[in-house]
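Lab manual, section 2.4: Encoding a predicted structure.

Procedure: take the sequence of the chain (213 residues), apply the prediction step described in section 2.3, and record the output as structure tokens. A sample record is shown.
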Amino acid sequence: MKTMIALIAAGLVLVAAPAASAQKNQPGSLTLRASADLVKFGAVITLSGKLTGPNSDGKTVQVQEDPFPVGDFTNLGSVTTNAQGDWTLSHQPPVNTRYRARQGGNESQIETVNVRPAISLRVSDSTPSAGQRVRFSGRLCPEHDGATLALQRRRADGSWRTVRSMTLQADASTCSTYSRRLRVRRDGVYRSNFGGDADHAAGPSPRRRLNVG
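Recorded output:
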């Protein structure tokens, strides 16, 4: 009887051992999330994620980027997971960029962050007389010399109509400039709008209201 009990106990140990071993070697996973999928040029994003599985704390995570023109990922930086397996890294993308993270045999999904240019808009007179010519000007960063920018006026239904097309000019800085005069006859809200290209997303400038006297 004692021999049988011993054999049963040994069998239980043999059964339990593989289960414990499997639990110990259970693979983890690695996630990646960007704080925004569309940002204005110059903005900083936060890349974060979580490593799960046994012993996920204190691990080095390699964060990689693939900016336009996309093709190959290169190392952006290394971060260390905390006690919960969480990690975070800040970055300022200059162009549309893909991101991923790696740790050991784990690889995260790919996240894409699009970058729209930073566009300013100034008017020479915000309270012009009816029929007066107003100068609309500003800068677009980063530079897109030779690209087209649309000067748009808001319709009554909230949509935008392009009233002039403007060509971006070279500037001494890393930005491009534009300027165009327009004869205005009634009150209106205006903006400059970039239609987007391969390396940057579409985006508008701040709006400017003209009150015509």
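Check your result against the sample. The two ends are 108 Å apart (CA to CA).
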